[in-house]
């Protein structure tokens, strides 16, 4: 363990909504999307659940205009964590 707190996989922008965090790992070659493309046999059940939640979140953002109201809060949460510029 490197002494750093573990980054949560989920963001909670308010209300009863939960969104998948855009980056689970700092190394893009180690993440679930990379494994899905290049090493699918290495995917875990957790990876599959995360990828399904990303697909569902994307669907909501694209098809439901009301979902966009969460974007400013999600971005603010990521900035607080230092994960987004």
Highlighted features:
mainly alpha; 85 residues; two-stranded antiparallel sheet
Order of helices and strands: EEHHH
Sheet with the most strands, sense and barrel status: 2 strands, antiparallel
Number of strands: 2
What's the alpha carbon Rg, rounded to whole Å?
A: 14 Å
Task: Provide a descriptive summary of the structure in words.
The protein contains 3 helices and 2 strands, in the order E-E-H-H-H. The protein is mainly alpha-helical and 85 residues long. It has a domain at 30-85. The protein has a two-stranded antiparallel ribbon with strand order 1-2. Strand 1 (10-14) and strand 2 form a beta hairpin. The protein is globular, with a radius of gyration of 14 Å. 4% of the residues are buried. The mean pLDDT is 81.
